[in-house]
Design goal:
Layout: H1 6-10, E1 11-15, H2 21-32, E2 48-49, H3 55-63, E3 67-74, E4 77-87, E5 90-98, H4 107-123, E6 127-133, H5 137-144, E7 149-156, E8 166-167, E9 173-180
Length: 182
């Protein structure tokens, strides 16, 4: 007997297109910035003000060679997204967003698993890479429970480039997380 939740059957995964740009920007912003993001647990509102992305950035991900932006819909409505970028024998995972009111119900786990499957099966990727703001302990722990490991390799936060937000603190940096896909 199939015991999977009914919502699994209602989720569809597809590559985003130009017409999706406004809805994708709104989804990413709602998951990370402002008071609306506090309905979920992925908010960065205490760390950053300003935007998380913009239409230009989303269009660049959709149109870049070796890149795809996965749009996830439930009953025809955008509920999640993620970026995959081919980088040699690895894939980069980014621009991950789940509608705040749906966080904590397993949707994020399913999206991440589908992204890993696509990277492995369609691109032959042996590893998935991502960068996470290093002070996001709860988020990093979530990824660690899904097999990602901290590398200790960091890169600076782009202070002064408001395309990535306006930092509320001085200690932000990105840490590389890696998972073997084999």
């Amino acid at each position: 007997m199939d015991t999977a939740p009914l919502q699994d059957a209602q989720e569809t995964y597809r590559d985003a297109v130009e017409a999706d740009v406004p809805a994708l920007v709104a989804l990413v912003e709602s998951a990370y910035r402002g008071d609306a993001s506090r309905a979920g647990w992925t908010t960065e509102a205490d760390l950053l003000d300003g935007q998380r992305t913009d239409p230009r950035g989303v269009r660049e991900v959709i149109g870049a060679p070796g890149s795809r932006l996965l749009a996830v819909e439930r009953d025809g409505e955008l509920v999640a997204c993620c970026q995959l970028e081919r980088r040699g024998d690895a894939a980069y995972f980014g621009m991950f967003a789940v509608r705040p009111g749906l966080q904590g119900g397993g949707l994020g786990r399913r999206v991440l698993a589908e992204a890993e499957r696509l990277a492995r099966e369609e691109w032959g990727a042996r590893e998935m890479h991502m960068t996470v703001i290093s002070v996001r302990d709860e988020l990093i722990a979530w990824y660690e429970r899904r097999g990602y490991r901290r590398t200790g390799r960091t890169s600076p936060f782009p202070y002064g480039d408001e395309r990535f937000g306006v930092p509320r603190r001085e200690d932000l940096r990105f840490e590389l997380l890696v998972k073997a896909l084999g």
